[in-house]
Each structure stands twice: as C-alpha cells, then as structure tokens.
Amino acid sequence: MQLTFSIDPEALRQRRERLAKLVDFPIILWSGQRHARNYPANTYPFRASSHFLYFAGLPLENAALRLEAGKLQLFMDDAGVDSALWHGAMAKRDTIALAMGADAAFPLSDLPAWNAHAATIAVQHPSTHAAQEQILERPVPAVRAAEGIDLALARAIVHLRLTHDQAALAELRQAATVTVQAHQAGMLAVAHAKTEAQVRAAMEAVFIAQNMTCAYPSIVTIQGEVLHNEQYHHALESGDLLLADVGAEAATGWAADVTRTVPVSGKFSSTQKDIYDVVLAAHDACIAQIQPGVEYADIHRTACTTIAQGLVDLGILHGQVADLVDLDAHALFFVHGVGHLLGLDVHDMEDLGDLAGYAPGRQRSDRFGLKYLRLNRPLQAGMLVTIEPGFYQVPALLNDPERRSAYQSVVNWDRLAQFADVRGIRIEDDVLVTESGSEVLTAALPTNAAAIEQQMQG
After folding, report:
1. What is the dotted CATH code of the domain comprising 166-456?
2. Following CA atoms 20, 23, 27, 30 in sequence, which dihedral angle do they give, to the nearest 10 degrees?
3. pTM surpassing 0.90?
C-alpha cells in the first residue's frame, strides 16, 4: 500500500504494552485478503481485520503481526513488478514497519518459523482462516468456540478496545464530523430528490470527497420499519418519512453511526410529530443517564419506559407503564436494543459474539423485549456507544395472530390505525462516556423536529 495518511506509532506502542500486561504468550494477528466479487480479478474493496488494525494502524492486505512482550514483528511481502504496473508504486515492507513502529519486518513466508505457542483470533476471510490453521498447525475456531490462549487473547483485546485512547478518539471524532456533514447534505437533497437512491448518493458523496467510505451498508428508506433496509429504488412522496442510517468509516477503520428521520415534504404531519417526539424523549432521557458505572441495560429500560409512557399518553397503549414494559408490550413498536458499542467496527467487536457486549457471567435473554440487546455491561469512561431508540410498525409483528391476541387488552388498535403515516422513526447519536458524564460526538446534527424542518430548508 501507499502511505497516504499518518498514524501514531506511539499510540500503537502503548497498545502493545497494555496488551503485554494482560497476556504472557505470543500472538499472531492476520489482516486478511480481498474477497472476489464475481471473478478473481474483480474484488470487493479490502477491509483489514479490526483486531489487526488496532495494533498495526494501517490497512495492510495479506499481512500478519506477531506480538510478544510489547514487541511487534511485521510479516508481509513487498509488491512485485506486476503490482506496480496495475496499482502503482507501493511502499516497501521496511518503510511500512518503520511507520508503525515495528521492531522487525520479515517476508510472509518466514511466519511459520515463529508460530510456536501463538494465540490468534479467527479472521472472516476463508483462505486466510485456512492459512491461520496451517501456520499454527491446529484448528482456529470462531471465538464462540474458542478456548485456551485464543479465548484469553480475545478477552484481553476486549478489555483494551472497550475504551478508546486519544489516538482512537481523534479518528472517531473525524468520522463523526464527516457523518454529520453527510446527513446535512442528505436533508438538503430531499427537497429535489425523486428516489431514496438520490438522497443516498448525496450523503455518500460527502464520504468519498473526504476519502472515507461507508462503515456499513447505508439505510436510506421510506420503509423505516425494515431495520436494515438496503433497497433504494422507492419514489419519495409527500407524506413519507425518510429514515437515513448512514455512517462514515475513516481510512484507518474507525466508524461513526448516525440515524435521522425526516419528512419528505419538509414538515412533519401532526401524527408523525407526535410519535417523533416520543422517540426523541427516549433519546434524550437515555443520553442524560449516561455516566461511568451506569448499567447500559438500565439505559435500555429507560428507553422502553419512556416510549411506553409516550404511547400511553397518545392512547395507543393503555395500562401501567411498568406493567407494559414487563409484558414487553413496548417491543411491538421498539423491538431492538437501544444501541451498541462503536469503534473500529460499527457494532464493535461483534465478531467475538457477545464476549464484548456482555459482561462476564451475563447471557443474552430470550425475552421478546430483550433478545436483541447488544450491550449489557456497566459503562466506563472512554467507551463510545450509540443511543438509538425507535418506533416501528412492522406488519409481521403487528399482524401476527399470537402476538395480537397476547396484547389485545393493552393495545388500542383503532387508535394505532390513526398513525398509519408513521412506518418507522429512529434517532441515533454517538455518545462518548466521559469521567463526569457524556459527550455527544454527533451533537451538531439537530434532533428536534422543528430544527430538522429548518435544516431541510437550508
């Protein structure tokens, strides 16, 4: 690769030293390779393993790091003449090693000689995973099935990556800033856009102009009840709500994740604003609660109770709020968790299953209102989390005979029908836990309904 952006070798050194205090065995981490899109020479854009990126700082393809006692060895091959022909001159291995503060650098073919008793984390790329097993001369299962030193390594990396150092926060702030700019561009584009795709184009153009990419497939849809909608062909009509869940990823891999829901006409209807304000109240109440030591599950419950109270006030639900939440009645409209960890992965470290999201000894619930909760541990200063309550009218849930029967006595279905112009609303921000409270990294993007209407007018 060409060294087109700077990294902080001192920050990388400190990460290695913190890791060395947690484990006493050698570690080998692989970056991975490109995936073929439809034939070998036509590939998807390369994305290095996040665990590799955390210690390497550079998105090197087909490379490996060996870490031991705070020292780093880089294993990669120099690009050949054919590569220079097609891709241009590439930095040499020794130059890259110097930039990241490596203690030594070797060809990739030397790696098997250093494999003794090394731990690793399975990568997503199949052929690289096969190489891991070949070089380590043992099975390398996914973390859900890992044991021994591989599991110990995963736990140590979770400990490090749960909170962010200053170098990481600088990257995360930049990703957040560019994401805010993209959403501002999207809000302005709605006035003249004919389809969802045109709004998406306006937003992603901001990322491209900043040499960033999407941290995940963009969700720009009038079908807001489809949580991970990746279709963009629908026409925009007055009366629609447009949900945009779009986040930037910096060249070094650090991510942002922001959602706003806007009226295509430029002004919320009365019913849309009523529901929007319920979701916003939950958003604001959750952020106000964030500080070190607070249980994230309690923040989720705040979202649930606030949404339930709002729906009671609107006459959609009836009963005592605590009882409604205990019945998971709110989950008919707010089924997912209120957020997740954010860092090098938009759902940070979820390749490790629930190892990062759930504190030791905790397991995911099978309850309707809790089974999609991605984070269940006490907050710490330096964590970055999302807060993203929502309201959705999902036909598969609302028309399910079993659920409809179970909640018949607490849902006013006739009143709910009056809110048919609200398919889905989500409001999401990226929130840093500080020593004394929190900081919303994406606060420059308005959440208030009136402010959004004004933003759409430029």
Report:
1. 3.90.230.10
2. -90
3. yes
